[in-house]
């Protein structure tokens, strides 16, 4: 494998672009950085090296070295050639990214664009100073501008997005995009909607803790279980007191799952039951339907309800609820 640049090592230096430090380095682990830096050094001095030699020199498993080369090629940092590998000029790459042809606009459009751009410019400057110590790389400017257009976030929401990721020590583009997609899917565009989301998020977290305690779960909830809880709290607007009614099903069913709880809560939601009192009345009414003298008739009725309730044995559940309900 050939690398392309020469000078005595004693008097030479290997320059690393700030673009690499700010754009690429935060997103990869240390081995990826080691491979890049050593290849940069080899390229400057026009050296040859094999994948196997590179693996031994850097103390990195050969499969990881191959994986690293594939990653840098896909990221546009390395360029594979017939004679070897060329290391791309990251500054030139950023210049090409930032170049945009100038388009004409009407005076009204220009005025609106100017006002919008002033606000955006102020927010981007704040992001640069608060989270990048004033040295945010050019690529971030283009990405933030694109995110404004894609997600339709107001300036306060964009600033909050970066603060959210910064506070979680995850100020990289992949994580920011994940959070932005989630907020966008929740219909968040302005600060008011974001505040409501935060309130719902905190409520979900509190209910998650209570559910884990009630069910005596030692492990964290998985993403599917958390999705169920979010549906109960955010979509169904159920408080913990109502959710707890479904959790009490565990007293009459062995190994009751979140699927089972969801079926019961969804049944209540579809019936329009929104309060404890409404559910209590539904329970009483259901019990009365089962008070029949003939045992066979009672059994037939139970089977009918069993089928209609999608395998939820409401009769047993309601009969085993505490007398206070």
Structure notes:
With about 325 residues, the protein is mainly alpha-helical. The protein has three domains: about 1-95, Orthogonal Bundle (Arc Repressor Mutant, subunit A); about 110-190, Orthogonal Bundle (Arc Repressor Mutant, subunit A); about 195-320, no CATH class. It is about 65% helix and about 5% strand. The protein contains 16 helices and three strands. The protein has helices spanning about 20-25, 30-45, 50-60, 60-75, 90-100, 105-130, 140-150, 155-165, 175-185, 190-215, 225-235, 240-245, 260-270, 275-290, 295-310, 315-320; strands at about 1-5, 80, 85. A three-stranded mixed sheet has the order 1-3-2. A hairpin with a 2-residue loop joins β2 and β3. α2 (about 30-45) crosses α4. The longest helix has 25 residues, at about 105-130. Residues about 100-105 have low confidence and may be disordered.
Topology:
Layout (H helix, E strand, L loop, with lengths): L1 E2 L14 H7 L5 H15 L6 H8 L3 H13 L3 E4 L2 E4 L2 H9 L8 H25 L6 H14 L3 H13 L5 H13 L5 H25 L7 H13 L4 H8 L10 H13 L5 H14 L5 H14 L5 H7 L5
Helix pairs in contact: 2-4, 3-4, 6-8, 10-11, 12-13, 14-16
